[in-house]
């Protein structure tokens, strides 16, 4: 009765006869049909009978693999009125129609089926498909959850049908990328099946699905706009060559290339999650999950995968994904990424790599010895070892050794290959190495005194082995160098130069970098609780803040230098810290206690393979003493540590806690002391300010570092801000200005332009205006000489700018009393500092008879110098030539115009730029300064006089310095008088000698370094108060 009732309630199928022609056994899956349609199972009606009678027209599903609505959507509009299965089974070319949204046709075998089984459905039901037919199902994952239900060979079709009929109803996850929610388990089978099917037909979130948290749905949606199903299914069903990535850190192409042999039929991301729980394999070249987990396990949440942790914390600079990606480097190099709080590596993988961003700084060196065996290393070391050293080498390099013979040999090779000129001996202190390193090295270098080996009779430990080695040194200086290092050119010369240049420095050390190019340490910080930190660790070593000499709390013992005298004075490494650790921090405290400074020197660079000999485990071996000695160190120095920074503070101020203040100096360009006198003064001003205890940051308006000139400033302790680290001067000032305590703005044409912006942005911070010379006065004098009316408007504009800036400045630096009095007459009283030329003493100038010829010196970007050469060569030199002295005129100066070469003749030599001006002038009898206009004091005059080289000058050239004609120099205005003065000075030794002595004495008393230092000290005291 029920059968008749159900059938009678339905229309007799219009297409029944047609359908019976296409019907085939196996089309209807009875279990599925009854589960989907309880009205059929409840009527005790056979599923295939019901389907053949009315079910196909009611568009019921005959099996899990044929979906009427899905097929209809693939048909042309004209064919959609018929039951889809009739069109599908009766079509002349149905093979292109997919009967099921979760069937991937590429997984169906097609061999000889086109005629026997013309449709995909025929093929699917007639013969087991490949696993690729159903990418949503991870067979191994599914089997594991059934606890051995499937045994032996089971077809994919059977497993898929089991899942669709049983696993889905039990809410068993078919893939590690997702599982089902609790709400899903409460639904009946029909609701579950429809929810499952919607994953393949609807692009929407599905509350029934709990996606594996490592699959980043939002990232996937944002990355791929052509999705028409759930993101997880879109990934699983996408072409494997599309390289779609379900996570910002997952590089599909890399994964296939690296682990393709392991994938089998799995998608790369699914395999990644399955392989060792996602810890064994890298998701990309730059992320090492296993190492990352070990490094930062204490900050992981329970069950959190490393890439989840990184996506949560990766916008912070401390979390390094691996040694192949410098997190801190990347964020400091591309600050806009850090500002967005986006994980650095995620940006690099998805955008930065394509844009050409760098994941690491350049490697510090190419180590050609890395792959060599011990025999090859030994051969190279012996061949490249320099000849024996003297009995009293300048430096004794102590290399403490415990095993790791290969590293020790590579360290020695790097020392031998370095271009340094400092004489040294090497002492290898072997502390009973298990690989007999010391014995091997002793035999290798038995024929030279360059390398000496100390074989400890018993194991002394690192500290006592170093102390013992120090007793055997012959050098004036002792340098401790770890054996797990490689030194770069200049490393030794720079350290020695640091100590010899400044007697207040007692201990200095190198910039340490990792082999991958990242910074290991730019000096160390000691906190108030005795804990320590490597300043700049894992950042870019090229950043300006790490590239200037600085007073630091301590220098790493991996590469540090001090005099043997001071070493003995402070008692070497403190024995109470044996066997190792904290000896470098402790000796730094002792050096300061002896009244000396501890200074980091970044121009000395050493590559450090940290932890080679002692490992990194703090709980075992010698490394455990790092924890023990931390407490011992604190108890020893806790009184002094009260003045140290708060523990954990990694800000830049922490590294600078020893400075008195921070001063910005802004000028047109980086000083080039060998090219113009203004640069000499600027260079010495900054040198003095650093010696007074201030940190100086120099910012050239053009943001060009100028190579060696910036490096010379950095050696002294001046930070130089330049391209490419900064690309916009105004942005830099406004972003960083709050960190400065004072601004010195040089020149009206450069620094003064930023005065108002700085005053408005940072009110209350003192601003000093350094005129260099009064530009408007120089321009005014040029007009008086040339009568060029085109100069009048620029003169007025410059006058307004300079006088306006002087009125507003907290102090103005001027170079002469003349300028101070001139300005007082113009604007009334104003705070000023007289800071003229600055010179260091020149000793033992050659006498009159060892000199010949005459020189003019001046930079030719300065218009008064061009005019002076014209005046000299056209009007003065012809008159001087008449005296037939045989002298030649040397025209010296940077930026010489090409047309000046036309002046060349038998007695005029256009020399151009001279790098070593002191050596050149040592052979010149006197210089001339025939300036007809200008302002300020003239460096060409002062520099000649301080070297004992007399000067013949015009009144303009000699003004403002207090020089007297006939006492300190010869002053002449007219060409005849000027030529006469030159002739007398060239021929009269007594007159020359007198002017040489008095001129030199006067300049050094008035413009010497000590006088300038006192004036600058007065200035900063005034500003502080």
From TrEMBL:
It is an enzyme of class 2 (transferase). Residues 396-514 form the Glycosyltransferase 2-like domain. Its EC number is 2.4.-.-. SUPFAM superfamilies: Nucleotide-diphospho-sugar transferases, UDP-Glycosyltransferase/glycogen phosphorylase. One of its GO terms (molecular function) is glycosyltransferase activity. Keywords: Glycosyltransferase, Transferase. This is Putative glycosyltransferase EpsJ.
